[in-house]
């Protein structure tokens, strides 16, 4: 499947600051990427669909002004958590739709652990 | 105290036994289904998938069964090994739904030597 990386793997920040998380598709040009959030012992919750060259599509209840998504190239999508607060602490995971050998599934990155103090 | 719903159901098996993990999906229009394995602190790893026009698909040591009548999916792992210990999620997708996936709650598989 597609090889997906995320950076950073973990980040600790102070309340009120902004944090940017990068998601890279290393072996596949992805027109669509997805961003998920996962709280401890819970399932993955889709936040938004990131479309290359256009605006992201956000799921109901996800604030687009707080979670800024940019998909400027076929290999990079970024999620910026603006004015982060402790309740934003979570595991953020991106995925790529498709891959070099498959076109109909999602492959996930390793995740980014965000802790807001 | 802890809230209901924050405890993942756990399946405990002995090493070498077969494991069966079940999942109920919600959308009768879903036309593909995927099983993912997630180890602690890592992203989900693709295991196997199945299309709605099939009822069984086999991989290496894994088999997925689909029962569309009752909207049920299962993952069978043969000769379970300690390295299989993880949380397993089923996900359903709809080809006409912008490729979005809906994830199930997850099941923790604990393999004991």
Describe the structure in brief.
The complex is a heterodimer of chains A (117) and B (113). Helices cover 0% and strands 52% of the residues of chain A.
Characterization of the model:
The complex is a heterodimer of chains A (117) and B (113). Chain A has strands at residues 4-7, 10-13, 19-25, 32-38, 44-51, 57-58, 67-73, 76-81, 90-97, 106-108, 112-116. Chain A is mainly β and 117 residues long. In chain A, the strands form 2 sheets. In chain A, strands 2, 4, 5, 6, 9, 10 and 11 form a 7-stranded mixed sheet that branches. A 4-stranded antiparallel sheet of chain A has the order 1-3-8-7, with no helix packed on it. Chain A starts with a strand and ends with a strand. The model of chain A has no long low-confidence stretch (mean pLDDT 93). Chain B is mainly β and 113 residues long. Chain B has one domain: Immunoglobulin-like. Chain B is 0% helix and 50% strand. Chain B contains no helices and 10 strands. In chain B, strands 1, 3, 4, 8, 9 and 10 form a 6-stranded mixed sheet that branches. In chain B, strands 2-7-6-5 form a 4-stranded antiparallel sheet, with no helix packed on it. The termini of chain B are far apart. Residues 1-5 of chain B have low confidence and may be disordered. Chain A binds chain B through residues 1, 4, 6, 32, 34, 40-46, 49, 57, 93, 95, 97, 104-111, 113, and chain B through 6-8, 32, 34, 36, 41-46, 49, 89, 91, 95, 98-106.
């Amino acid at each position: 499947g597609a090889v997906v990386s995320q950076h950073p793997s973990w980040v600790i920040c102070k309340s009120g600051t902004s944090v940017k998380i990068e998601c890279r598709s290393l072996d596949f040009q992805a027109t669509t990427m997805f961003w998920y959030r996962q709280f401890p012992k819970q399932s993955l919750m889709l936040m938004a669909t990131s479309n290359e060259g256009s605006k992201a599509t956000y799921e109901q209840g996800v604030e687009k002004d707080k979670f800024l998504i940019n998909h400027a190239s076929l290999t990079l999508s970024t999620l910026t958590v603006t004015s982060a607060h402790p309740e934003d602490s979570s595991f953020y995971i991106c995925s790529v739709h498709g891959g070099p050998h498959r076109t109909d599934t999602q492959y996930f990155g390793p995740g980014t652990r965000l802790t807001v103090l | 105290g802890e809230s209901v719903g924050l405890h993942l159901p756990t399946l405990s098996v002995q090493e070498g036994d077969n494991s069966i993990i079940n999942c109920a999906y919600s959308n009768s229009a879903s036309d593909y289904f995927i099983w993912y394995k997630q180890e602690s602190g890592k992203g989900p790893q693709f295991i196997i998938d199945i299309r709605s026009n099939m009822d069984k698909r086999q991989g290496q040591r894994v088999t997925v069964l689909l029962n569309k009548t009752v909207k049920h999916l299962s993952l069978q792992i043969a000769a379970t090994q300690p390295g299989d210990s993880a949380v397993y999620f089923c996900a359903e997708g709809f080809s006409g739904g912008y490729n979005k996936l809906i994830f199930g709650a997850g099941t923790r598989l604990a393999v004991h030597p």
